[in-house]
């Protein structure tokens, strides 16, 4: 047996009075008669299909004793309230006269409600603008906006995007509803009849927006789950996955170089963090590696730290490299302490960075969508070994 009560989500804008009336009449023609509504759903009782008419009126106009008597005389009954703003009247008589025979009078009867809508819409508009501008402000406030966007806050980024989309969707629904109300008011005051049959187009638009929101939510959580599932890390000597590794043995000309473990990290954490690799993933940078190697041959010790990225979009490479340079150096504050010289590495844009009074050398390299920053500590000159840097840039993750 079918349930006597049926619940439906109203896809028509809440302040689009004529479209809600048309939707309720359409439901009655299918045998679903309005019973009541709550914050999210409309409740209908099953019955025989009928040509029922519904009319929404601002509360306090016709739901007073005199107004109720007038409505009963015309063949209308108060069937309930919608929210705190409207009374819903219904008639089962096809020939019952309208509650308002003059649309202009009805239009002016919405003036008080229009003032309340404006009062409510103004702070809502301000809040919507603040919500929309907040991500842009945060992005501009970051020291390395592209780097922060692509890496660091992958989960937070998607949660921000999701929150932003929900805010945009709710703002769209609200302002669409408000604009529909004022459009109806202008139409009535111009002496034109409401267009109740137009509710289907409005419902289709809102259904498409709602479906798009659900799809975006599902995709966002799928991306978050996929990203977390793809992350991995471990000691360089034990991981069984490929990773970009700078050939220190070949650079130093010391084939007997061996890993020099971090005594502190082994004792405190049980892993050698000086010989460690981490892999991360995001939509804008599907391959992100952090590699650290510390090796020794007798009393000689050498090491490197590598941040290696493969970006999704070539257009991100240049601004991403600038942010990477900014994160690893203080060039913006004290440029006189740094020497930046071009490196001749085939098919790449590369620079060698040295700091006055500092140790080691840094390399920033771009090749297509690959960007990496290498910090090397040792006695060798990286500019004399461009083939090792080119090999590092050509790593394909397989």
Overview of the molecule:
- With 398 residues, the chain is α+β, with helices and mostly antiparallel strands.
- Helices cover 42% and strands 24% of the residues.
- It is built from eleven helices and 15 strands.
- The strands form three sheets. Strands 7, 8, 9, 10, 11, 12, 13, 14 and 15 form a nine-stranded antiparallel sheet that branches.
- β10 and β11 (300-310) form a beta hairpin.
- The longest helix is centred in the middle third of the chain and has 36 residues, at 154-189.
- The model has no long low-confidence stretch (mean pLDDT 85).
List keywords for this structure.
398 residues; 11 helices; elongated; alpha+beta; three-stranded antiparallel sheet
Give the topology, please.
Blueprint: E1 5-9, H1 17-29, E2 32-37, E3 41-46, E4 53-58, H2 65-74, E5 77-82, E6 86-91, H3 103-108, H4 111-141, H5 145-150, H6 154-189, H7 199-230, E7 232-235, H8 248-252, E8 258-259, H9 263-269, E9 276-280, E10 287-297, E11 300-310, H10 317-328, E12 338-343, E13 349-355, E14 361-367, E15 370-377, H11 386-393
Antiparallel strand pairs: 1-3, 2-3, 4-6, 5-6, 7-9, 8-10, 9-10, 10-11, 11-15, 12-13, 13-14, 14-15
Shape: elongated
Order of H and E elements: EHEEEHEEHHHHHEHEHEEEHEEEEH
Main beta sheet: strand number and arrangement? 9 strands, antiparallel
Specify the helix fraction band: 40-55%
Structural class: alpha+beta
Strand content: 15-25%
SS field, number of helical segments: 11
Total beta-strand segments? 15
Low-confidence stretches: none
Mean pLDDT: 85
End-to-end distance: 60 Å
Indicate the radius of gyration in whole angstroms. Answer: 34 Å
